Each structure stands twice: as C-alpha cells, then as structure tokens.
Amino acid sequence: MHGYDAPIYTNVTYPITVNPPFVPTENPTGCYSLTFNVDESWLQEGQTRIIFDGVNSAFHLWCNGRWDGYCQDSLLPSEFDLSAFLRAGENRLAVMVLRWSDGSYLED
C-alpha cells in the first residue's frame, strides 16, 4: 500500500505510531534462558530441532552462545536446527523476544 494510503484496520488501532518499517526506539524486550543436559548418545541420533509454537512479534535464538536464528512470523510455528550447536553435557538456550518489529505492521 506504500504510496496509496495508510492501512485501515477496522477493529483495532496500532499501539505504536504508524511509521513503517520503523518501530519505536523504546521496544520492550524479554530475555529468557534455559540450561539443560544432553547425553552423548542423543547427539549420535541425528538432527536435534526446536520448535516455537508462536512468539509475539519477533525473536532471536542462541544455543551455547552462538546465534542460531531469527523469526518474526508472529504467533506462527518456527523451527530451528540445534545440531551444530549442541554438545554432550550442559547446554544453554537463550531467546530475546522483541515486542515490535517491521512485521508488526502486518498484523490485524
């Protein structure tokens, strides 16, 4: 719709100033982490994947301090392959969730 008119949402108003693709500099962020153990035998089985059933609105994923990916398909499943990052013994996942992304303008 760029160049024609502002998007029209009949049932909601944007909770942020409409200025696509930019988002507010004050962007609430949540950081979550999980430490878990993996047996050596598990690593021999093949790929290990993680599925997020839905995160609002965007997030980054790290496994053992290494960036594994980014997703901004709000509230849709997303899947990441952890195989290259996992090791036998203790492992740590970290997720940084951003409240706003340029994809926020596509949501109704």
UniProtKB/TrEMBL annotation:
A Pfam family of this chain? Glyco_hydro_2_N
GO terms, molecular function: beta-galactosidase activity
Alphabetical UniProt keywords: Glycosidase, Hydrolase
Q: Which residues form the Glycosyl hydrolases family 2 sugar binding domain?
A: 1-108
Q: What class of enzyme is it?
A: hydrolase
The protein's superkingdom reads: Eukaryota
Which reactions does this protein catalyse? Answer: Hydrolysis of terminal non-reducing beta-D-galactose residues in beta-D-galactosides
EC numbers: 3.2.1.23
Q: Does the keyword Hydrolase apply?
A: yes
Q: Which GO terms describe its cellular component?
A: beta-galactosidase complex
The reply on keyword Cytoplasm is: no
Question: Where would you find the membrane-spanning parts of this chain?
Answer: none
> Could you say which protein family the record assigns here?
Belongs to the glycosyl hydrolase 2 family.
Supply the name of the protein: beta-galactosidase
Q: Which organism is it from?
A: Grosmannia clavigera (strain kw1407 / UAMH 11150)
